[in-house]
């Protein structure tokens, strides 16, 4: 193994090789990598992967979303942190292309100078990298008003497991003829290739960003109002239900974007439909509230994501309530609930299995975002009808199993996990 790792180190500039004393800082699931490489160019990424024979490679971005993984054999880390910078930005076309290691905060600053933004607010968004967000799919409540991140990614450049550089899609909306590989790459977690750059469409910054807040002692008391928001003749930018909220208790927070007159009219229509008056919050207070909701229930020792049809939100909340001391954030428009626990509970494996079975009964899913490896394995989904298709794609894009191997990593949504943020 040392010879194989030495060959990988020799494939890149010496400045891209992290010193031995830094390796422990890059531990994944308490396992220290055999080496950490930070290539500074696409060519170096390609050379590294071509040299990776009999060694598994785990690409990492901002290390904000490692999920529940634990490597079971020696591996090396490929960090994209040196692949930074905006390659092409056309404000008039509302498109931007940047390298994978560019942080969301740096891109936001560039866009803000032109009155634009990328409407995506996953947990710890400022620290995340563009490549990591693309690789994980970066789910966020703003999908309700703007669409999911998958809808905003116009093109990607990836390096396959055997070192080929592929440019997929383009920099305009209508750029696909035939099978859309870009949509497969978004959310693939690096199992099909390492994202080294991405082109995204961006949006004008809304003139008014208003949050409407409704509070109650417990989240269940707000479910009727939440269901009404989902059927209102108004499309909010996002709608989330959180417990506990900053002041204690629970809060339903509906976010409206647009011109001031349009937001005023949407608020009036929404309140008539729901049958109640919301507390409006704008400016710095609204920004602080949205940041709290973005990160709520995320940075905990054990985090699960439950999802079913939005009409089953009350049932999904019932499943979440079976978990002890849980903080909850529900995306009202998606039927998706994040559950964070301040400690791994006793009999956690049994609890997760029970939740998994309950979610199957609702026609939904359970994903382990953070937990010990044995707990994550309890929720691993069984093979389904897509298994053959996925295996064929991996065989084509990663023929040696460098980025993905069923025996290499365990835990998380997809069993073995590849690229993370």
Question: What are the defining features of this structure?
Answer:
Uridine Diphospho-n-acetylenolpyruvylglucosamine Reductase, domain 2, Alpha-Beta Plaits, 29% helix, globular, Uridine Diphospho-n-acetylenolpyruvylglucosamine Reductase, domain 3, 5-stranded antiparallel beta sheet, alpha+beta, 421 residues, 14 helices, 8-stranded antiparallel beta sheet
Explain what you see.
- With 421 residues, the chain is an alpha+beta fold.
- It folds into four domains: 78 residues, Uridine Diphospho-n-acetylenolpyruvylglucosamine Reductase, domain 2 (2-Layer Sandwich); 119 residues, Uridine Diphospho-n-acetylenolpyruvylglucosamine Reductase, domain 3 (2-Layer Sandwich); 84 residues, Alpha-Beta Plaits; 77 residues, Alpha-Beta Plaits.
- The protein is 29% helix and 24% strand.
- The strands form five sheets. It has an eight-stranded antiparallel β-sheet, sandwiched between helices.
- β13 and β14 form a beta hairpin.
- α1 packs antiparallel against α2.
- The protein starts with a helix and ends in an 11-residue tail after the last strand.
């Amino acid at each position: 193994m040392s010879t194989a790792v030495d060959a990988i180190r020799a494939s890149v500039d010496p400045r891209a090789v992290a010193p031995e004393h830094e390796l422990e800082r890059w531990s994944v699931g308490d396992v220290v990598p055999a080496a950490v490489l930070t290539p500074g160019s696409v060519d170096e990424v390609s050379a590294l992967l071509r040299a990776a024979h009999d060694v598994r490679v785990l690409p990492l971005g901002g290390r904000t979303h490692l999920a529940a993984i634990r490597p079971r054999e020696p591996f090396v880390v490929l960090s994209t942190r040196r692949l930074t910078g905006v390659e092409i930005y056309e404000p008039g076309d509302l498109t931007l292309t940047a390298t994978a290691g560019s942080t969301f905060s740096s891109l936001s600053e560039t866009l803000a100078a032109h009155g634009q933004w990328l409407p995506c607010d996953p947990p710890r968004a400022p620290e995340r990298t563009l490549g990591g967000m693309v690789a994980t799919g970066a789910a966020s409540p703003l999908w309700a008003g703007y669409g999911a991140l998958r809808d905003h990614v116009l093109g990607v450049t990836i390096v396959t497991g055997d070192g080929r550089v592929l440019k997929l899609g383009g920099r305009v909306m209508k750029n696909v003829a035939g099978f859309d590989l870009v949509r497969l790459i978004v959310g693939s977690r690096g199992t099909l290739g390492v994202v080294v750059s991405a082109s995204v469409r961006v949006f004008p910054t809304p003139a008014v960003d208003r949050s409407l807040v409704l509070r109650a002692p417990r989240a269940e008391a707000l479910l009727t109002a939440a269901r009404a928001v989902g059927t209102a003749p108004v499309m909010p930018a996002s709608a989330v239900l959180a417990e506990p909220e900053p002041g204690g208790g629970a809060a339903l927070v509906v976010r409206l974007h647009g011109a001031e007159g349009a937001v005023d009219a949407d608020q009036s229509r929404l309140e008539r439909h729901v049958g109640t008056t919301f507390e409006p919050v704008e400016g710095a207070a609204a920004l602080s509230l949205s940041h709290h909701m973005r990160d709520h229930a995320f940075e905990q020792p054990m985090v699960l994501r439950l999802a079913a049809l939005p009409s089953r939100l009350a049932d999904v909340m019932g499943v979440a309530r079976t978990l002890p001391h849980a903080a909850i954030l529900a995306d009202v428009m998606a039927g998706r609930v994040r559950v964070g626990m301040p400690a791994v509970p006793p009999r956690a494996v049994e609890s997760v299995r029970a939740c998994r079975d309950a979610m199957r009964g609702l026609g939904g899913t359970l994903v382990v975002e953070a937990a010990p490896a044995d707990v994550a394995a309890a929720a691993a989904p069984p093979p389904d009808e897509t298994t053959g298709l996925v295996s064929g794609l991996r065989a084509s894009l990663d023929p040696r199993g460098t980025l993905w191997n069923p025996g290499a990593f365990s835990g998380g949504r997809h069993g073995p996990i590849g690229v993370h943020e």
